[in-house]
Amino acid sequence: MSAEADRRAYLDALGIDVWTRRGAVIGPVAEVAGTSTAPEHLDWLQLRQKVAACTLCGLHKGRTQTVFGVGSETARCMIIGEAPGAEEDRQGEPFVGRAGKLLDEMLRAIGLERSEVYIANILKCRPPNNRDPSAEEANHCRGYLERQIDLLNPRLILAVGRIAAQQLLNTDAPVGQLRGITHTLRDGRLPLVVTYHPAYLLRSPLQKRKAWEDLCRAKKLLGEQLK
Ligand code: URA
Predict the structure, then answer these.
(1) How much is the pTM?
(2) Whose CA is closest to 198, among 121, 139, 89, 116?
(3) I need a labelling partner for 137 at 20 to 30 A (CA). Which of 6, 16, 103, 224 fits?
(4) CA-CA distance, 94 to 85, in Å (whole number)?
(5) Digit-coded pLDDT (tens) for 111-135
(6) Which of 87, 93, 121 has most ligand 1 atoms within 8 Å of its beta carbon, as the pocket-test mutant?
(7) Comparing C-alpha atoms, which of 145, 150, 136 is closest to residue 168?
(8) Is residue 20 very low, low, confident or very high in pLDDT (cuts 50, 70, 90)?
(9) Is residue 167 a contact partner of residue 122, using CB atoms and an 8 Å limit?
(10) Measuring from atom 7 of ligand 1, which residue has the nearest CA?
(11) Best substitution site from 95, 104, 131 to test ligand 1's pocket, by max atoms within 8 Å of Cβ?
(12) Rg of the Cα atoms in the chain
């Protein structure tokens, strides 16, 4: 299959129609183990080990394993989700369940393979019954995520879902209000785009058009970083 046919197939899998003019697809119809060293001093391996040994909150009692993050440590795009679910807790990797499969399709639709991005979550341990992370749990995990961002030094963050967006932007605003604009972190140096969580998109497929708009925004920003 050609790259264009590939892209079409993924968009199709997402349920997104595209319209074509003069042969080009031009847009959617609508839319360290156990150390006391602070995370900011750790390298990738040390940070992974520290997270694996973490007992800062009660979630460590129910986990099979921590879910640190996955992908390229030189990725330009960092995807941040909420917390591991049952499958992620079993496999030790973020976004490997049904929502993860859709996330993979969403990334492919903008020409990115899972291996080319870095994927992490606000929480490194699974909350029981997939409940929302508590403020205390998110605060305890925050230093780990901030260090992952430091080490990766991405050109763009894509926050998927309400919890990731609200935590990263320190707001209570709903995703509907946070998406559709480009936010920044780190004194304006790091662009952040908000989109719907793939688990929500599985339940509300009509919102996929808006998610596609968000992905196009992310792709454009990544393209601009290359210039
Ligand atoms: N949902 C998330 O936010 N993260 C995962 O890793 C899996 C599901």
Answers:
(1) 0.87
(2) 121
(3) 103
(4) 8
(5) 999 999 999 999 999 999 999 999 9
(6) 121
(7) 145
(8) very low
(9) yes
(10) 95
(11) 95
(12) 18
